[in-house]
Design goal:
Blueprint lengths: L7 E6 L7 H9 L2 E6 L2 H10 L4 E5 L7 H9 L9 E5 L4 H9 L4 E4 L4 H19 L2 E2 L3 E6 L2 E11 L2 E5 L9 E6 L8 E11 L8 E9 L3 H12 L11
Parallel strand pairs: 1-2, 1-3, 3-4, 4-5
Antiparallel strand pairs: 6-8, 7-8, 7-10, 8-9, 9-12, 10-11, 11-12
């Protein structure tokens, strides 16, 4: 997302008269293509029609219930991974908290200079990419669930989760203790995770289990992030557990 030639498509849910042609031209110069919507129906049509990278909703725009729209979009598998930014001229803590509690990835107080706002948006997108970069680690992971210890092959790995190839009777929402080695490290990464998705077995293949990391032990997170940063293949998204 951070490359100079990359255009970010931003869905802006607000009064269309607020996002003027001049304003959109300014965003375009900074690498952001604004798709304006004045209602949820308009926003929904745009989401279905093209790939949107980022959604910005003005909480002060009364025709749209920004909190409920955020909750709704985050509950949809097709849109849950799209970062949502809520903005408001209101500075009360309860406004910020309501935005974040609804599932917004970022709350921004307005007005802000456009360039500063764009930088915050790009930082959010860069973080989103880092959170979804994946690698093929290989090897095995040892895991414990409900007092039972097992091991399985490691599928994809990111700093936010891991894909296991196992027939263990895991269920969504179950807590799992994991331990796995990373190359050139004497100490394994140890982490508590939560089963986020079960992938049914295919012909001749074991079922897959997507586990989202919850808490790391010691410096495990720092060591894993360093390893991922060196080894990541790109910005492929691990849809099965994110």
């Amino acid at each position: 997302m951070s490359g100079q030639n990359t255009t970010i498509k931003m869905l802006s849910i607000d009064d269309k008269t607020v996002t003027t042609d001049l304003d959109r031209a300014g965003y375009r110069k900074m690498g952001i293509l604004v798709r304006p919507a004045a209602s949820f129906d308009e926003a929904n049509k745009l989401l279905k029609a093209e790939k949107i990278d980022l959604i910005v909703i003005n909480m002060d725009y009364k025709p749209v219930d920004s909190v409920n729209v955020t909750k709704h979009l985050k509950a949809q598998e097709a849109y849950a991974a799209i970062p949502i930014v809520l903005t408001s001229v209101q500075t009360a803590a309860k406004v910020r908290n309501s935005a974040l509690d609804a599932g917004a990835d970022l709350f921004v107080e307005q007005p802000l200079p456009r360039q500063y706002f764009v930088e915050k948006l790009k930082q959010l997108l860069d973080q989103q990419v880092r959170n979804t970069e994946r690698i093929n680690l290989g090897g095995e992971v040892s895991f414990t669930y409900d007092g039972t210890t097992a091991s399985s092959a490691v599928g994809d790995l990111s700093i936010s989760g891991i894909l296991l190839s196992t027939d263990a009777p895991l269920q969504e929402g179950m807590r799992v203790e994991l331990s796995f080695p990373i190359p050139a490290e004497k100490k394994p990464v140890t982490v508590t995770g939560e089963v986020a998705r079960i992938i049914p077995a295919g012909k001749g293949k074991k079922s897959g289990v997507g586990i989202r990391f919850v808490t790391f032990d010691g410096d495990s997170q720092k060591r894993l992030e360093k390893f991922i940063e060196k080894s990541a293949l790109g910005d492929s998204k691990m849809h099965y557990y994110l």
